Hints:
The complex is a heterodimer. By secondary structure, chain A is mainly α. Chain A has one domain. Chain A is built from twelve helices and no strands. Chain A is globular, with a radius of gyration of 19 Å. The termini of chain B are close together. Chain B is globular, with a radius of gyration of 14 Å. The longest helix of chain B is centred in the last third of the chain and has 16 residues, at 123-138. Chain B has six helices and five strands, in the order αβαββαβααβα. By secondary structure, chain B is an alpha/beta fold. Chain B has a five-stranded parallel beta sheet, with helices on both faces. In chain B, strand 1 (13-18), helix 2 and strand 2 (45-46) form a beta-alpha-beta unit. In chain B, helix 1 (2-9) packs antiparallel against helix 6 (123-138) and helix 2 (24-32) packs across helix 6 (123-138). At the A-B interface, helix 3 of A face helix 1 of B.
Amino acid sequence: MTAQTLFDFFVFPGIVFTAVLGLLAGWVDRKVSARFQYRVGPPLFQNFNDLFKLLGKETILVRTGVRWLFIAAPLAGFAVLSLAATSVGTALFFGRTSGTDLIVLMYLLMFYSVLIVLGGASPGNVFSSLGAGREVKLLLADELPFILACLVPVIRAGYKLDFGAILAYQAGQGMLVASVSGAVAFVVALLAVQAKMALPPFHIPEAETELVAGPFIEYGGPLLAFWKLNQFMMLVVFPFLLILLFWGGFPLRGLGLLWGVLKYLLILVLIIIVKNTNPRVRTDTAIAFFWKYLSPLALAAVVLAVLGV
Amino acid sequence: MGWYNRRLAKSLWVFHVSASPCNNCDIEILDLLTPRYDVERFGIKLVGSVRHADVLLVTGVINEKVAPRVRRLYEQAPKPVFVVGVGTCPTSGCCFKESYNTVQRREDVIPFNVYVEGCPPKPEAMIDAIVKLMGVLNG
């Protein structure tokens, strides 16, 4: 547990950096969505105000719920996402892989979705349990194409799961989106990431007009603050992961830094555009979309990657 | 406490409690939350769950059947929470003041912080009330 590791985890690119960047990225989301609707939108530090306001409210624990799970779910989610952000960030910015590779990261991101399910199942609320059930179905739907799409960089980098190997391959051969298999896999991964973040059109668990607030209905105060912070941190972790796997990384020097920021903004704006232009899909439509259309497409991308295209 | 109050004033999440209204005030509240008035620039957001709420917008004259439910909703909202009575009904009872079903004193059910007159009040009047609430919070 060196000072370097502690700095990585707590300051940059860990908790403080990911939280601040996530809150600002969430503002970009809200502002661009507002402009889509001919509105003005919130001021720059709105998400910071929301977070601090929530941290100061009363914590209410439901009598019929499993209290330790109710409290532990958002905190464990925060810990898991901090770990995921640190591992992606250190690989992306510094080239240090420090014992985590793609499989560990996928496990962490799936564990986060499981924590949403557990947190939704922990109070005894009907809407909450329905939301948790829908999150399970969404998890079933989007994991398969996501894993298949993430296989493409692995295969192209010479069957290596290490982040450093993927970045080194792209440093030598150019960005993976420039090739056919990489471009197809990037599109599949982008849509799968939209579902993993439970953003529209896949905001099935937190279906506002149907399930009030889904798994988060009984959460209020500081615990809700942690769930909101988790959602904003996902807006940093997933684009950085996509940049690492498909867009060639984020060099911290000179013109590469500007290019890296542009890559991040591009992926963020793509996510926001998809978010604002689509209505919510039904659960069975989502599963059909991911299994019948995106998974064969991702499989085709894998075959093309093996063939070296 | 002043710093926290200023955060709260910039991020008021609104929950709509309809305590037996005629639904005109509810329609005007929905008007308020449309892009034309754009209250999101003040940080105001409509939330679906009462546990996420900072402001309860109560419409309608509270009658005997809904009074225990309104009380329960108020207790479910995490404190600090503010109650805004929208319309003339929660303010004074309007034409239902002498009805057999209306509660005697609305303040016995839940404490009110702000009243907005009007039957129904214009969205501009509701914005004015929220701004006055923010002014009290900002000191």
